[in-house]
Amino acid sequence: MSSMPRVPTPEPTSSPEPPTAAIVGCGDISAVHLEALQDLQIDVVGVCDVDPERARTVAQRLDVPAFTDHRELLAATTPSVVHVCTPHAEHVPVAIDVLAAGAHLLLEKPVADSPAQARVLCDAADAAAHQGVRSGVVYQNRYNPPNQRLHELITSGALGRVHGARAAVTWHRTAEYYAARPWRGTWTGAGGGVLMNQAIHTLDLLLWMLGPATAVRGQAATHALAEAIEVEDTAELLITHDGGASSTMYATNAYPVNAPVSVQVHAELATATVAGDLVVAWNDGRSETVAAQAPGSVGRAYWGDSHRILIEDFYARLGEEAPFWISPRDGLATVQAIHQVYDASPALRHPADARS
Ligand SMILES: NC(=O)c1ccc[n+]([C@@H]2O[C@H](COP(=O)([O-])OP(=O)(O)OC[C@H]3O[C@@H](n4cnc5c(N)ncnc54)[C@H](O)[C@@H]3O)[C@@H](O)[C@H]2O)c1
User: Which residues form the GFO/IDH/MocA-like oxidoreductase domain (predicted)?
Assistant: First the structure.
């Protein structure tokens, strides 16, 4: 009886180790990152906060080590990805160390508290990218379905020539909001107010959709919260985009409620309005609606619903050759535009040494 031909036993295929995560900065937004990581079943290997109590509380809940120095966390836990959720002035110093340790960087907005610091980060991220280290910025509103669709309609040419866009961010922030986290109201901690902290998402959407800014004019001032904060609570901008369209934006933290952010694009073939949902009113009478709510969202509505989706996408793309599509250079563009407004705002009590 002839025996079955002997087939070589295949070597067990070595699947890559699943990525691990660490969080630096255990404040408000870290909860959204941690919830997303739990949802995605990504192991958190350590957390860090300069406030030992805050670090310990989160670490105990997750049953992971707590650190008060991010360099010790990097050395002890060697995470694949570090989520940087610190105040603005503490973004670049932490991010540079993360990249130097060879960990992928997921950085909360704004990338830096000044254009000079943002450029330092971009150079470090470019150098790290040559070693396969990824950097991504949390502009999660780009993932909102209405914004995705509007971007597609513009860039595919479906709307025809785009004349321009107008945007409004009219939110409510009290003196107590700033007192709870004193860095938020200061030039040294936050590098700016409503533009740098809140409306930067919408500014990013305008630059993403209509193209890079070739000129930015505007004014910023502190109307309602002058007793409580150094930074601006209100601003208006006129942006000229590469390609000829122009956009205007109004932003304030002095509105009585957190109203939905609105972005309206006027184009040759339609007017498209995002205010929660996207409604496209075509000149020929057709209309199209895209609902705002992303499935499975965990973020608070006015932060944008798409933190979890961005985080999932960042991890999913780690194996790809291409850099993550929302880069530190996108972050630099927004910080630069904001500083053009600060530089043109004599009423602002902006320290001259931060105007770079
Ligand atoms: N993408 C969004 O929609 C969104 C929403 C809210 C906040 N954010 C951003 O998230 C970041 C944090 O904001 P927040 O509201 O959570 O602030 P927060 O003050 O609540 O938390 C920041 C934490 O970082 C800690 N910290 C400060 N310096 C540190 C350092 N060097 N190393 C380790 N920990 C340090 C603080 O002690 C604090 O616990 C900011 O950049 C903010 O703009 C983004």
Answer: 148-271
Both tokens of residue 169? 């961010």
**Within a 10 A sphere around the Cβ of 197, how many other Cβ atoms?**
20
342 and 268 fall within a common domain? yes
From the CA of 29, give the closest atom in ligand 1. 16
The verdict on 158 and 132 lying in the same domain is no
Give the count of domains, the chain: 2
CA of 29 to the centre of ligand 1 (A): 6
Q: Which helix (H) or strand (E) covers residue 27, if one does?
A: none
Q: Quick one: what percent of the chain has pLDDT higher than 90?
A: 87
The verdict on 121 and 201 lying in the same domain is: no
Q: Give the tens place of pLDDT for each residue, 283-338.
A: 999 999 999 875 555 544 444 368 999 999 999 999 888 999 999 999 999 999 99
Classify residue 184 by its DSSP letter. G
Residues 239 and 281 in one domain: yes
The DSSP 8-state label assigned to residue 101 in this structure reads T
Distance 24 CA to ligand 1 centre (A): 9
Tokens of 332: 């630099």
Q: Supply the range of the domain harboring residue 340.
A: 141-293+326-354
Element (H, E) at 103: none
Average pLDDT over residues 331-355: 85
Q: Is the CB of 74 inside a 6 Å radius of any atom of ligand 1? A: no
Among the residues of the chain, which ranges form H helices? 28-39, 52-62, 70-77, 91-100, 115-129, 145-155, 175-180, 187-190, 200-210, 307-316, 328-343
Structure confidence by residue, pLDDT tens digits, 289-301: 999 875 555 544 4
What is the rounded CA–CA span in Å between residue 288 and residue 278? 8
* Pair 77, 176 in one domain: no
Q: Is the pLDDT of residue 11 over 80?
A: no
Percent of the chain with pLDDT over 70: 91
31 CB near ligand 1 (under 6 Å): no
Ligand 1 pocket test, pick from 24, 28, 231 with the greatest ligand atom count within 8 Å of Cβ, gives 28
